[in-house]
Automatic annotation (TrEMBL):
Signal among keywords: yes
TPR repeat start-end pairs: 526-559
Family annotation (InterPro entries): TPR-like_helical_dom_sf, TPR_rpt
Signal peptide: 1-25
Keyword terms, alphabetized: Signal, TPR repeat
UniProt name for this protein: Tetratricopeptide repeat protein
Source organism of this protein record: Lysobacter korlensis
Length: 571
């Protein structure tokens, strides 16, 4: 998903915004819009006074205190009459669930002028949050009607992360469909159909499919949506029949082939997915995907045929092909052959991946002395890219961990960090290793080292916040860390899941349920499903909880969050 603008160091950002606001106040031309002319220009004294509010806002963000940050930015926006500050105040207030500040900031933003689609999105989100459904519908209708800005995409985003509940989002989608407001574009209809499915609304999804079939007869992507809807409804045989109708159109359409294979994959028919990809022109991507699907299907007969097909061209010094042959040989447990292919990769960026894979194969062959010698050589190879050398330390630590050699694993991390001081990948990996061993203080220490070097590391903020929420009772501190991550990436399902989980740990059960449902709508993930199931169980909705536990099992029966949830609930 798209990455939001990262936070920057407080003083730098505050000074930058202040300069921008000051410049706008001095240089704005007389022909400004009428709305802008109605607002008085800020004085130099007001701009100066705004610096304190900006600093407070940024430091509050860095501390994860979103409510204080929203109010501080709002004060600065009022003082400077700067649209960028008004927008920032609006977005932070929405995240903080401070509806009063959000309404104030949004009114100011409207008065100062801004991107119409961005303003409508904020209007719709605030109305949804406040339960003003009629106003929300009005804003969403206006948004989807903005053709130049692809407003329908922004409307989807609002419904994905702004609705208070799946029921509210469903009502909005139904109103847009039944009111004839969805643009006459196939991609828009397919997207809203997909949202209806993620919201687990089969009747609405079927209604959309019927309308799409009527509007776009003969379009193969419509059959894909229909198959997806049938799959979600548990009608597997009918879904397979719908996919068969797509097959003749896919051979010479690479994008359609990939989509068709993906739908077969979701139906659990991995061999059919591989067969779809085998039709038409082949490239390294399709070969790789076919090999992966056949390996997951444990179809070694077909995979062997593919391996032999690829091997006929293996004598060519093609780095990508030899790397792929090594990977397929690994899938087939033909490790000696895999080693030969990897060692035969002649150059290019694939050379370094091949060296790492070769080490892994040596370990599988119980040739540990050779494996670790190879890794030491790569770690010391000054001609290797830094990422490859760093990854050699990571792989050594991982292999030592597999062998349950804790001291050797930690030694690999220590040597890696001596060579690459405070490298975030090494620190993050070591933190996860400590967490798996229930050594939370050491895990926290490493994640905090990441944040010392990069205070805006979203991964570290989320990981530390979630760890504190899940494995300690420091819930308020966890919330502040997760709020910092949410500010940077408000639509990241992993972060929304962490947010829902810390709300649950704080006892804010209904709020937690809203956020966890939102996260699961965005991403069908076993950990999110486990969290959602546990909250539903505690609330007393045990049948629904069992359904989510079942979905988590289907996605990953060995998931640690699932095991913990089942143990705590006794489900």
């Amino acid at each position: 998903m798209p990455r939001a603008t990262r936070l920057t160091k407080p003083a730098v950002l505050a000074a930058g915004l202040l300069l921008a606001a000051s410049a706008a106040a001095v240089s704005k031309p007389p022909a400004a819009s009428a709305a802008t002319q109605r607002l008085p220009k800020p004085s130099a004294e007001a701009v100066s006074q705004a610096l304190e509010s900006l600093m407070v806002g940024e430091f509050s963000l860095q501390a994860g205190r979103l409510d204080e940050a929203a109010k501080a930015y709002l004060r600065a926006a009022h003082a400077t009459r700067d649209a960028a500050l008004a927008e920032r105040a609006t977005r932070i207030a929405l995240l903080a669930k401070d509806d009063a500040s959000a309404a104030d900031a949004l009114a100011l933003w409207h008065g100062l002028g801004g991107d119409p689609a961005a303003l409508r999105s904020a209007d719709a989100m605030l109305a949804l949050r406040k339960g003003q459904d009629a106003q929300a519908r009005e804003h969403l209708v206006a948004l989807v009607g903005m053709k130049a800005n692809d407003g329908w995409r922004q409307a989807l985003g609002v419904l994905g992360v702004g609705a208070r509940s799946p029921e509210q989002a469903t009502a909005m989608v139904r109103a847009l469909v039944e009111g004839g407001h969805i643009p006459a574009r196939l991609d828009a209809w397919l997207a809203f159909g997909g949202l209806a499915q993620r919201l687990e609304q089969p009747e609405l999804a079927e209604r959309i499919v019927t309308e799409v079939v009527r509007r776009f007869p003969g379009e193969p992507r419509v059959a894909l949506l229909q198959a997806s809807q049938l799959r979600e409804a548990g009608k597997r045989e009918e879904a397979l029949a719908a996919l068969q109708a797509v097959m003749p159109h896919a051979e010479n359409n690479p994008a359609l082939r990939l989509a068709l294979a993906g739908e077969y994959d979701r139906l659990g028919d991995l061999s059919a997915a591989a067969d779809v990809l085998a039709r038409g022109p082949q490239d390294e991507q399709t070969y790789s995907l076919r090999a992966s699907l056949l390996a997951r299907a444990q179809d070694k007969t077909t995979l062997t045929k593919l391996y032999e097909e690829l091997g006929r061209e293996g004598s060519r010094p093609d780095p990508q092909r030899r790397l792929l042959l090594g990977q397929v040989a690994e899938f087939l447990d033909r490790n000696e052959e895999a080693l030969g292919w990897y060692q035969g990769v002649p150059g290019g960026p694939q050379r370094w991946t091949a060296r790492l894979r070769a080490t892994n194969v040596l370990h599988e062959l119980d040739r540990d002395a050779e494996a670790f010698k190879s890794l030491r050589e790569l770690q010391a190879d000054v001609s290797a890219p830094e990422d490859a050398r760093r990854d050699a330390y990571l792989l050594e630590a991982a292999l030592r961990g597999e062998d349950n050699e804790l001291a050797a694993e930690m030694d690999a991390f220590a040597r890696g960090l001596a060579a690459f001081a405070d490298d975030p990948e090494l620190l993050y990996a070591r933190a996860l290793s400590w967490e798996r061993r229930d050594d939370i203080p050491r895990a926290e220490a490493d994640l905090r080292r990441v944040l010392v070097a990069d205070p805006d590391s979203v991964a570290a903020l989320n990981a530390l916040g979630y760890t504190l929420a899940d494995r300690t009772t420091r819930y308020q501190e966890a919330l502040e860390l997760i709020d910092r991550a949410r500010t940077a990436e408000p639509d990241n399902p992993a972060i929304i899941d962490s947010y829902g989980w810390v709300l649950y740990r704080l006892g804010r059960l209904e709020e937690a349920l809203v956020e966890l449902r939102r996260a699961f709508t965005l991403q069908k993930d076993p950990e999110i499903a486990s969290h959602l199931g546990e909250v539903l169980w505690v609330i007393g909705k045990r049948e629904e909880a069992r359904r989510y536990f079942g979905q988590a099992r289907e996605l990953d029966p060995d998931n640690r969050a699932l095991k913990r949830a089942l143990e705590r609930t006794g489900a």
